[in-house]
Structures are given as structure tokens and as C-alpha cells.
């Protein structure tokens, strides 16, 4: 577990996200957040087991349209969609790096992803 958190923290430093954009006098929230993460050990996300490098993308415009808003791609390629799902936004303390919160309640005691939070954001995304 500690190694997973450390790996995510290191890769989170390399992760990139979009911040607020200024238009005139009004601040406009970004519509997508993305990060690259490498799982050095197998983790469970919903019905999928992940190991290796993935791109995680959250799209606010898809969420507003009622579509699955959080997507995980292998190697960042659009043809390699692994899973897409609806998340539940929740307020958290701002984090400086991409953060994944897990629990050991998963199948065969594998870490299960419960929540995803992008660098610089005060909003986390609960997996449901």
C-alpha cells in the first residue's frame, strides 16, 4: 500500500491538469482534468483490474450531460478505453499532486480505488 501511494505521488508530480481559465473579469472553470498514473501493483477499479500506465480523464461537460465523466485509458490512446463511469464529486482539501485513495476491501485483498483527485483541485471524484 505504501509503495502504491508513493508511486502515485511520484507520478502525480508528473501529472498534468487544467486549472481555471480567465475570460475577461470572470473565472471559468476548466472542463477536463487529466493525469498519467502507473500502477506498479494490481489495483481494482469497479470490475476492472489495473496494472501498468494509464491516463485518467475527468470531463465536466460529459457529467453535465449525464454521460460517464471519468475515463481510464491504457497508454493514453483513445482506442484503449479500459473503463468509463459516473463519479460523485465531493469537496476535499486541495492536493498538490494527483491522488488516489484506496481500500483493502477488494477481491483477494487487492487495493480497490475509492476516490480520485487531480492535482491542484479541491474536488475529488468518488467511484460508484
Account of the 3D structure:
The chain has 128 residues and is mostly beta strands. The chain has one domain (2-15, 33-127). It is built from 2 helices and 10 strands; from the N terminus they run αββββαββββββ. It is globular and about 35 Å long.
The N- to C-terminal Cα distance equals 22 Å
Task: Using the alpha-carbon principal axes, give the shape.
Answer: globular
> Strands of the biggest beta sheet: in what spatial order?
3-4-5-6
Beta strands, count:
10
Q: In terms of topology, how is this protein built?
A:
Blueprint (H helix, E strand, L loop, with lengths): L1 H13 L6 E3 L2 E3 L3 E14 L2 E12 H5 L5 E5 L6 E5 L1 E5 L7 E5 L8 E6 L5 E5 L1
Summarize the structure.
Helix content is 14%, strand content 49%.
Q: Key features?
A:
four-stranded antiparallel sheet; globular; mainly beta; 2 helices; 128 residues
Amino acid at each position: 500500500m505504501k509503495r502504491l501511494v508513493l508511486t502515485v505521488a511520484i507520478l502525480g508530480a508528473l501529472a498534468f491538469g487544467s486549472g481555471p481559465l480567465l475570460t475577461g473579469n470572470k473565472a471559468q472553470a476548466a472542463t477536463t482534468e487529466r493525469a498519467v498514473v502507473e500502477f506498479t501493483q494490481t489495483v481494482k477499479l469497479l470490475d476492472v483490474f489495473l496494472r501498468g500506465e494509464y491516463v485518467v480523464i475527468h470531463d465536466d461537460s460529459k457529467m453535465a450531460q449525464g454521460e460517464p465523466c471519468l475515463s481510464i485509458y491504457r497508454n493514453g490512446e483513445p482506442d484503449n478505453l479500459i473503463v468509463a463511469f459516473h463519479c460523485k464529486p465531493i469537496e476535499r482539501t486541495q492536493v498538490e499532486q494527483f491522488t488516489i485513495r484506496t481500500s483493502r476491501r477488494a477481491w483477494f485483498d487487492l487495493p480497490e480505488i475509492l476516490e480520485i483527485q487531480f492535482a491542484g483541485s479541491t474536488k475529488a471524484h468518488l467511484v460508484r
